[in-house]
Amino acid sequence: MAQLRIALAQVNGTVGDLTGNADLIVEWTRRAAGRGAHLVVFPEMFLTGYPVEDLVLRKSFVDASIETIEATAKRLADEGLGSIPVVTGYLDRRADVVDRVGQPAGAPLDAAAVLYEGRVAVRTAKHHLPNYGVFDEYRYFMRGDRLPVLRLHGVDVAVAVCEDLWQDGGPVTVTREAGAQLLVVPNASPYERNKDDVRLELCARRAREAGCALAYVNLVGGQDELVFDGDSIVVSGTGELLARGPQFAEDLLVADVELPDAPAEFEPGETPADAHDGTTITIERVLLSSTPVPPYAPETPPCAEPLGDLGEVYGALVLGVRDYVRKNGFRSVILGLSGGIDSALVATIAADAIGPDNVHAVLMPSRYSSDHSITDAEELVKRQGIHARTVPIRGMVDAYEAELDLTGLAAENLQARVRGNILMGLSNEHGHLVLTTGNKSELATGYSTLYGDSAGGFGPIKDVPKVTVFALCEWRNEQTAGLPPLVRASATPPIPRNIIDKPPSAELRPGQLDTDSLPPYDVLDALLDDYVEKDMGHDALIAAGHDRELVERVIRLVDAAEYKRRQYPPGPKITPKNFGRDRRLPITNRWREIAAPNTGDPARVGKKQTATGE
After folding, report:
1. Which residues bind L-glutamine (predicted)?
2. What is the per-residue pLDDT across 153-197, written as a single tens digit (0 to 9) for each?
């Protein structure tokens, strides 16, 4: 058996920061060298960051990526690290393709390079391009058609990229035909709930199909609406878990793997192979080093325990906020603190993400604010050590009402808009990033005020259903011992018990409760999950056991609020279908799922509905 020590660099880069990301490649390769690694693997498109979206279509950006990857290879050698092969993702192009309509401009490639002895020894590109969910890769990339197989210390190592694992056929199938002993896969796989279990099963299955060990390195960090959770994995050729990295944290996952000896004969060159997906992939055999590693005592590889469902969700929210603030040049955040559960959770996430000294809360009581809401908010401020100030809004609201003579819903929404103006004014004055506090249930049903509580720069819980908001608060209160780097230790639970226990209310009129306008959240969220996440129609929702009257009411609310959601700030994706990158519906749209009168058939044409709570 041959031995190989592989280092998976689960690192947090920044989109567009080629210089900074190149520095990280050198820094983490040096760390890997210090650990005795024979091979270092970085995530998908790590040099450029991922996703780079329409930057892909800029020739200047692609040119810079190619120049920087070549310079990084030389720099590694200049700094004494050239003898360790480094696999990293970057952006390249097909030079042999002429631009045409229907093809990404410039023929970009989601590429991976092998840096060795001061040069780019191998270039390859993702074969399978995802075009679902948050991915638009047919828009951006050309398909790769090569599988590099590197002879490294007497072991044959194949290289594939991310989606090549998720789809049948292609590089995994060809890896078996090539007879490789190890398949390394750089990834940029964004988080959503329960995806870690799916990934582990996928890696085990693909390792068995490829007939070799598999090393899966994933990106970590926040990028706008996406959060990459790390969770890098090494499995044996039988699918046994050998090593696993932590979630939502940088890590150098070092694993010693025992691999079958490669055949003594190795002839560099190219061989076409049937990819069993309707395409042909060229196996490119490249000799790096033929001398096996002398026998050594292997280290026991780490195997991090998953955080559990609520821990993962909370970790994604914290990392999403931290990186959005840090990578966009902010130092602090500001939010309205009402004494309700949503703003309490957002304040807590922010304090964990960037430290309580960088969180500024504004209490903005109105004539309808209850005494307990004010005292609950003050207690949260005290427990968490965040900054706070109180700005009563009654005088400002009265001045507006005297000029505009607003009543009913318009008067209620005026209060939210005054609060939004206060937050934006303080943001403008002090440079804080405004955090909105709306949850997914409210966004779905339009239960928010446009240019009021929806005004801000980032929405930490915009993809979190209300039932999960309650669960996260309970979970966070249990973590007083801390969970670095995601959760701070605290002497007491950070969220006062009364905030969790009291009925939710917008407090825009006397005695108001959320249930005056919406069904109980456990009922609502179950229905929203079927309608929004699973795209079930009117009849299917009723067949699934939902009340007909409630189905029709909720469908109307969700459909009418599309234009409001389009104007909401970005926020971390945690569900399979978030409002933003995932769920894309037209605003001007007369299709309705509601049964037409007297026919029982869905109405395909109807009048434009008016959203409530505008």
Report:
1. 132, 189, 195
2. 999 999 999 999 999 999 999 999 999 999 999 999 999 998 988
Domain locations along the chain = 2-289, 309-515
195 is in an annotated binding site: yes
- Cα–Cα distances in angstroms (integers) from residue 606 to residues 435, 439, 554, in the given order: 36, 29, 17
- List 280's β-bridge partners, or say none: 274
Render pLDDT for 36-48 as a digit per residue (tens, 0 to 9). 999 999 999 999 9
Asked if omega into 186 is within 30° of 0 (cis), the reply is: no
467 sits in which H/E element: helix 466-477
User: 440 catalytic, yes or no?
Assistant: no
Q: Are 2-289 and 309-515 the same fold in CATH? A: no
Check if 44 is active-site: yes
Q: Look at the domain 2-289 and name its fold.
A: Nitrilase/N-carbamoyl-D-aminoacid amidohydrolase (3.60.110)
Q: Which of 162, 203, 212, 473 is catalytic?
A: 162
Check whether 256 has a pLDDT greater than 60: yes
**Residues constituting the chain:** 614
Q: Can 162 be counted among the known catalytic residues?
A: yes
- Nearest 10 degrees: Cα torsion 22, 23, 27, 33: 40
Residue 610 has pLDDT above 90, yes or no: no
Nearest CA to 232 out of 44, 63, 486 is that of 44
Are 129 and 143 within 8 A, CB to CB?
A: yes
Are 499 and 341 a contacting pair, CB within 8 Å? yes
List C-alpha distances in Å: 188 to 159, 202, 221, 226, 364: 15, 15, 10, 10, 41
- Rounded Cα distance, 370 and 498, in Å: 13
How far is Cα 344 from Cα 346, in angstroms, rounded to an integer?
Answer: 6
pTM score, whole prediction: 0.92
Residue 339, annotated as binding a ligand: yes
The response to whether 221 counts as a known ligand-binding position is no
Q: What is the CATH number of domain 309-515?
A: 3.40.50.620
* DSSP string across 398-432: HHHHHHH---HHHHHHHHHHHHHHHHHHHHHHH-P
Instruction: Spell out the long-range contacts of 530-537 with Cβ–Cβ below 8 A and sequence spacing 24 or more.
Output: 531/555, 531/558, 532/444, 532/558, 532/577, 532/583, 533/575, 533/576, 533/577, 537/593, 537/602
